[in-house]
Structure formats: C-alpha cells, structure tokens
Amino acid sequence: MRTPFVKSGDSKFCGIAKYNITRLAYFEVCTDIRDAIAREKEIKDWRREKKIALIESVNPTWQDLSADWYTCHSERSEESPLRAG
Questions:
Q1: C-alpha–C-alpha distance, residues 33 and 51, integer Å
Q2: Count of structural domains within the chain
Q3: Which of 13-17, 25-29, 54-58 bottoms out in mean pLDDT, i.e. has the lowest?
C-alpha cells in the first residue's frame, strides 16, 4: 500500500509526486496481487468521467478515506466510516 508514503510527503517512491496527491478517495481490496494489478490497469484506461463516477458512487463527498488510518484507535473520529466497531 502506498498510503504511508503519501501521508508522510515522501511520495517520490510512489510515482505520484508530480500530481500532489494527499488523500485517498477510492480503493478496492483484492486478495491476489495479479487481480489488483489487472484492476488498476483496467481503471487506468478509463476516461476521467468514468473514474469520477466510480469514486462518487461510493464516496460522493470525496472524503479522505485514509484520514485516520495512522492514528491511535482512541483518537479516531466517531463519524469516520472506517472506525473500528
């Protein structure tokens, strides 16, 4: 996962430094790396409008889905959709 590099500002290792990416608006979970790579390549070929529609279908406000991934459990926001139950 590339998120720690993005959050730390050390994104030169991720190939995303030129885009100034600072938040995670969409992600998918894959159990097989080959499936993940194939899916990433599939989405990469899509037009921008289709990518935006995919993101907004699950995250219409473009909330940073990784906002509290690297904080202590007790510090996590009660409103966070990723808060551990």
A1: 21
A2: 1
A3: 13-17
Element (H, E) at 40: helix 33-44
Q: Return the ∠ at Cα 33 (arms to 82 and 18), rounded to 5°.
A: 70
With beta carbons less than 8 A apart as the criterion, state whether 5 and 11 touch: yes
3-state secondary structure of 47: coil
Place of tokens 């979970």: 29
User: Is 35 a domain residue?
Assistant: yes
- Please tell me the pTM assigned to this model: 0.64
- What is the distance between the alpha carbons of residues 65 and 24, in angstroms, rounded to a whole number? 5
Average pLDDT of span 20-26 = 83
Within a domain: residue 50? yes
Q: Classify residue 77 as left (phi > 0), alpha (psi -120 to 50) or beta.
A: beta
